[in-house]
Amino acid sequence: IIVALDPGHGGEDPGAIGPTGLREKDVVLAIARQLRDELNKTRGLRVMLTRNGDHFVPLHERVRKARRVQADLFVSIHADAFMRPEARGASVFALSDRGATSAAARWMAERENRADLVGGVNIDVADAQVMRTLLDMSTAAQIKDSLKLGREVLGRIGRVGRLHKRQVEQAGFAVLKAPDIPSILVETAFISNPEEEAKLRDPDYQAELVQAIANGIRRYFARNPPLARNRTL
């Protein structure tokens, strides 16, 4: 079983920045590395990171990396901000092919999808390579499995911290558009909230969060074992 973990942002794109200067790109990379180490303890499971350092990776390349290794899951990790500092709680998102489930979900997806602009990626090229080849394909089965995965992960995260919404939300996140890989985006907390920024700095909270996400992923595979197939890596 191969799991692709995608730490958001990186390099010239810091992502959201907390009130005391904690950068999203740094904290999500730390969480992703810990989650990789935790999941790699599971027999028969191997993790690939879309980035393992402080460098920028275009959104479509993150998807391509996961497809290249024939990943069974894709989990993008973020710690987003909102216009109001009182916004708080973790969220889990899956792809939507019918519009966002809320105005906030649409706002977050649009914000994350602008990451390529920071890195200087030609959006028209990205559209040609990703949107035409991926969005034109049927994603119904992927979305169904992504929602199953999202519910497992959200349920475990809700045991270690507050949830922003108690159901998996859906929106058009570019990194969730691989048609053949169940994909979710985890907003670990609102880094723009002073209390949650402090939590994200806390190694103990990070460890609890990592354990929760790992348990959700393991639970998903226990209930939805991937089909055996020959791999060419």
Concise structural overview:
This protein has 233 residues and is α/β, with parallel strands linked by helices. Helices cover 44% and strands 12% of the residues.
Question: In words, what does this structure look like?
Answer:
The protein has 233 residues and is an alpha/beta fold. It is built from eight helices and six strands, in the order E-H-E-H-E-E-H-H-H-H-E-E-H-H. Residues 229-233 have low confidence and may be disordered.
Features of this protein?
single chain, 233 residues, alpha/beta, 44% helix, disordered C terminus
What does the secondary structure layout of this molecule look like, with pairings?
Layout: E1 2-7, H1 24-39, E2 46-49, H2 59-68, E3 73-78, E4 91-95, H3 103-113, H4 115-119, H5 123-135, H6 140-157, E5 169-171, E6 183-187, H7 194-201, H8 203-223
Parallel strand pairs: 1-2, 1-3, 3-6, 4-5
Antiparallel strand pairs: 4-6
Helix pairs in contact: 1-8, 6-8
- The tally of beta strands, per DSSP, is 6
* First-last Cα distance: 13 Å
Order of helices and strands: EHEHEEHHHHEEHH
Assembly annotation? single chain
Please give the radius of gyration in angstroms.
16 Å
Strand order of the largest sheet: 2-1-3-6-4-5
The helix content, as a percent range, equals 40-55%
Instruction: Please state the overall shape, judged from the principal axes of the Cα atoms.
Output: globular
Supply the number of helical segments: 8
Unreliable spans are: 229-233
Mean of pLDDT: 87
